[in-house]
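Materials and Methods. Structural model of Aminotransferase class V domain-containing protein. The 486-residue sequence of Aminotransferase class V domain-containing protein from Populus deltoides was retrieved and submitted for structure prediction as follows.
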Amino acid sequence: MSPKHYFSPFVSSLPSSLPSAYLSLSFSPFFLLHAMASSSLKHHKSHSLNGFPTPAKRTKLSFISDSEIQSEFSHHDQTIARINNGSFGSCPQSVISAQQNLQLEFLRQPDNFYFNTLKPSILHSRSLIKSLVNAHSVDEISLVDNATTAAAIVLQNCAWGFNEGRFSKGDVAVMLHYAYGAVKKSVQAYVTRAGGEVIEVHLPFPVASKEEIVSEFRKALARGKENGKKKVRLAVIDHVTSMPSVVIPVKELVQICREEGVDQVFVDAAHGIGCVDVDVRDIGADFYTSNLHKWFFCPPSVAFLYCRKRGEEGKGGDLHHPVVSHEYGNGLAVESAWIGTRDYSAQLVVPAVLEFINRFEGGIEGIKKRNHEKVVEMGEMLVKAWGTNLGSPPEMCGSMIMVGLPACLGISNDPDTLKLRSHLREHFQVEVPIYFRAPVDGEVDSITGYARISHQVYNKVEDYYRFRDAVNQLVSDGFTCASLSN
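The predicted structure was written out as tokens:
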């Protein structure tokens, strides 16, 4: 008998006001036990609740243990200090198993899977995401391959504005200088080719406060409007920049866009859900995307794209998936749910992911808090060991932080960062991305290299000690990047 049917007397007793996503999530066995315990406390004077015995006192919940966490990620290469969750994310074994079951279900009988499983399962995942990010309606949530695909959807729509005459040639799109490289390319491919002008917001790094970012953003918007001769049609704002990694005050920047008459705001939060707080209604952007495979434990690759409803328009504008298939014209969410025969299993495992997350104390909020605290602790340990500095205040990082590397390593350009990263991987079994910061005029012996360290639930303090000791060894040996061949 399925958990849903076995616990149906309990579920039927839940308040009818609960959202459907909550009821769907409640069919997770862990969540049901938690909910039953909480509900039983409210009825502690009675002997039973719909046939279930009521405990005399709260039963202490058993959260996931350290050994169980390591078992969930035992497929990771155990010889590598993997402190780079930010690049590709991570997926626990229980979710991988759920995905494999879905893949086999499709391969056994693809027709049945297509007609009876795929669409309702994608809708279920969208409903859960809708609740997690506080969207107003499930119609505002589409599932796509990744944040790069979401960017293409939004920027394609902007290009149509130029091509169809709604925008004037030379109207502006504003984006951060530290925008993700693929998104910059998309802006070039869609907006620039359609006749738009692109203005980049140059941000300081290291950054000392969010006020620095707000100030530079206002300056860029002023340049974009050029005394009223042009209009800013789109602002592309990162929630968490990739390299260098900094949490951007998106709510404040969105509000500035509203005050300055920017047509639409797109928040690229590839590192959003599971890393920082995400409340799309509170943030107030027109579009918000986040990968689910970076910090939310989904397998690669899947992301959500939120498109804010606009009055009677209903779907946040005439957006379409770049891959046109049979569902074209039925709304972005439906179009995205079928773009031809492919593996959709990554989009269907959100319930299994939530079951994994709810094994942790505090759920996703607890995971975010612990990851943030630990990455700050490890970052401060490293800069103390090397006599360097962090790239931002702790409050401006999520689960990643920029750590200055000793200047004597001689990082003088972007190719040096790639060579040093490979050297750390091959000779010290440390996987960490490195960022080149060009020295400002007049600086002498400045820090030009920063490592972006991540912390996820599987990381151990020994991972960061190995990185510390590797760099100390390089410094002791008199190593410089100039000694590495191309």
